[in-house]
């Protein structure tokens, strides 16, 4: 009988942006690492459907772990995006006050930003607000400029981190839903839908399922409440209306409804914030649509005259705490990274550093590898840098980049081929969308789905 495989040093449960960042960080050390996810692709859960903002952390609660990690993560992810080609646009943001109460809150938000180490906010008069975003609806009383806020591609971020984790030697085990955990004297056996995975240490970065996995290790310290956020995506012709991210004055339930440009050239309106019972309920609703249109009518009436090209919903893992919940359990050789809210994208690389340090303090040996592969260079999905269909030299070398398949998004046959040949290829059409933008445009695949899916079925 064959001997069972040696246990991994660390198994990371959850291949969203946080879990992928943790796996990448740990795989930079002399450790065997496995990155597990219940779904068939990385970044398939909360990470794929968020507002995709790169936050400075200006409005976090000072002194919290979230505040510290978002501030550090902003710097780390900005540098990582530069190194890997993750699309980022430095649009800046405006907090807009529409009532006297909101106007009175702006100085406190400025002071909070300073307490968080961000000293670049600036108060704006109503005239200055309209000078920066002329399409805003009437009635703005003033604002606060946050020049460091940016938009980023969350899809490419999760994929880059998981791709680099794999290049550093981590095993990426998709379709492995954890159903039981059996700690032993030397390793924990994770019973998954695709077989057993043994590891000396387990990191729980399971997002919406983090409390469930936490319970498998004997804890009952928090409950995840799925918070559904619906968003509307407007056509690229609307982009001149939104040169900046337009933020509301935040409330206890979150940052509220915003208007934001995207790196893909669209404009986004949302999200809603509705607590739901079903952890898979990403349906869009008539009530959500009506709510967003009502908010949009006040914020930017001209936007509502533009075409909506997509409506979607994401789920955030809300918990009954006001901070991240990242704690190590040395006795069980287990670490929880839970309660990671919408700021988790910005904080992901700093969360990974924090997890690394907690594991080291709890007894995991950490010896940095002396030779690491270069970070991956990711395909550009953004509009602020040249896309392949416009690159004459690239097309001259390889004509596949000159054959456009998806005309709404200008996606070429070469880009689809590259995605299928990549280290973590898509498992289906949705994964291909997130790697290339194919079928994400005005027609939502009506014109190109047949040809795109034929290329997908034919393989690399």
UniProtKB/TrEMBL annotation:
Gene3D superfamilies: BFD-like [2Fe-2S]-binding domain, D-Amino Acid Oxidase, subunit A, domain 2, FAD/NAD(P)-binding domain. CDD domains: GlpA-like_Fer2_BFD-like (cd19946). Residues 404-457 form the BFD-like [2Fe-2S]-binding domain. Residues 9-358 form the FAD dependent oxidoreductase domain. It holds the Pfam family DAO. Coiled coil: none annotated. It comes from the Bacteria. This is NAD(P)/FAD-dependent oxidoreductase.
